[in-house]
Amino acid sequence: MKHQLFHIIILSLLVTILMGCHTVPTNVTEKNELPDIYPDYIGVTIPVGIAPLNFSMTDDEIEAVDVKAEGSKGGLLHVCGDYADFDIDEWHQLLQTNKGGKLTLTICAKKNGQWTRYRSFEIIVSKEEIDEWGITYRRIPPGYEIYSKMGLYQRALATFEETPLIENTQIPNQCINCHTANRTNPDQYIYHVRGSHGATVVHRNGQDELLMSKNETLGGSMVYPYWHPGGRYCAFSTNKTSQMFHAAGKKRIEVYDSSSDVFVYDTETHSILKDTLTMKLLWAENTPAFSPDGKWLYYTTAQRQLYPTDYDMERYSLCRIRFDAQTGRLDTEVDTLINTSQTGKSVTWPRPSYDGRYIMYTQTDYGYFSVWHPEADLWMLDLQTGETRPVDEVNSPCSESLHNWSTNSRWFLFTSRRDDGLYTRVYFSCIGVDGKATKPFMLPQLNPKDYYRKLLYSYNTPDFTMRRVDTNAQLTSRRIISDQRVTTILKHK
Predict the structure, then answer these.
(1) Is residue 410's pLDDT more than 60?
(2) Concatenated DSSP letters for 370-402?
């Protein structure tokens, strides 16, 4: 009898170990409430291939959690520990099995020696995949004037692997800005370096070209880029940017341009096409973006104000103008798609979906630098119907901005300060056939509660990348520190 009892105990321990649990809930109290978890993954929709949605209870006094994730089409994961930590391979297998189905998660949490089981919740596993390997982004500290540590990074979506593309520790006292690929293609991208060794780095055809950071005839730097799908041209704005600080209220900083224009750059001839329609003297043109067929250039425009006193009177409309890739020229007529005189609001960061159906943009009360505006929300213009609406499914009381689409136009990512009101984090959502977005989920981390509490950096300008970006940061940094630069020339219409 003793030997039989001993074998039963050993078998139970082995089963517990194999299931990944250190303790088994006993004397469980049932609670008909959803658990309060961080990040909030309750009811989200996720793609097959995403990294495990590990999470913790928000209550720091929780001693242990026991989590079961059961698939509607089969499969079960059972983990137990300080937080929900799913095995990557088993997680991916569970998602693949339940593609187009759902996971039902049941959580038991132990506090003060007492176990409590909460109401189960679901995570939807979408039929729509994210085709991209990962994402790229800039990560920056909350500084304003001094170039503290910052860099451009890439992150695999299937795992928690993050690697730097380039960091400013390799080029001291420089600001690294705005990594922009051509439709998530890692073979063609642009980013800026600001400081004494300023440059616009253009990666194309396997080579890096370092452009002069400023063209004095142009009147400023090449700032917000967007590639033409053909790969030869890239639209930029040129901005004379200033900033100031709010003495009170929820807004901390205000960024505005004393002047800005939009132009098209020809990578083959190193020439800048100046066009009077997108470089009006008394107007500020900004944030350009090409349509996915390359036939239109979208941009925002606002009547210039007296700065800095009337900064909050600046409101941008959304316009477009035809572009001829054969000649590299813009048309002679401008269409206004969203007029601030009718909305009373300001449009910024237009981003067309790659299937040509939508333009997602950020709407604010004024200005264009939306990341510091709590009222900034994502809006979407349906180019088939002409209707525009707020994407209330993903908006929050905090700033939403800096969004980009996946190549299949089924997913988008964006940044938001909803987590703590201070730092921007990356979120993902799926667009259905009805044009509605799913509840967004935060970029997964191995131990998200510990990671995000310790991370005193913001995510900035995120985008998808279809493959890993292949860079040689050491070689590029040496070239940036050198005086080697390509001079751009101006070509008037």
Answers:
(1) yes
(2) GGG-TT-EEEEEETTT--EEE-TTT--SS-EEE
As given in the structure block, the two tokens for residue 454 are 């310790």
Provide the 10 A C-beta neighbour count for residue 463: 21
| Beta-sheet pairing, 37-38 with 121-125 | unpaired
CA 12 to chain centre: 45
Q: Which helix (H) or strand (E) holds 6?
A: helix 2-18
For residues 105 and 122, is the Cβ–Cβ distance under 8 A?
Answer: yes
Segment 174-206, tens digit of pLDDT: 888 878 999 999 999 999 998 888 899 999 998
Contact 5, 13 (CB under 8 A): no
Q: What are phi and psi of 250, to 5 degrees?
A: -80, -20
For 109-163, the DSSP string reads EEETTEEEEEPPEEEEE-SSPP-SSEEEEEEE-S-SSS--S-EEEEEESSS--EE
Q: Of 163, 161, 144, 160, give the one whose Cα is nearest residue 152.
A: 163
52: DSSP letter: P
Residue-wise pLDDT tens digits, 47-83: 999 999 999 999 999 999 999 999 999 999 999 999 9
393 exposure class (CB count in 10 Å sphere: 0-12, 13-18, 19+)? middle
Question: What backbone phi and psi angles, to 5 degrees, belong to 225?
Answer: -95, 160
Q: How far apart are CA 346 and CA 303, in angstroms?
A: 11
Residues 306-315, mean pLDDT to the nearest whole number: 86
Identity of the amino acid at 145: E
CA dihedral (15, 18, 23, 29) positive or negative: negative
Rg of the Cα trace of the chain? 25
Which are the contacts of 379, defined by CB distance < 8 A and separation ≥ 6?
Answer: 347, 360, 361, 362, 363, 388, 389, 390, 391
Task: Please say whether the dihedral angle defined by the alpha carbons of residues 403, 406, 410 and 411, taken in this order, is positive or negative.
Answer: negative
DSSP 8-state secondary structure symbol assigned to residue 320: E
DSSP 91: H
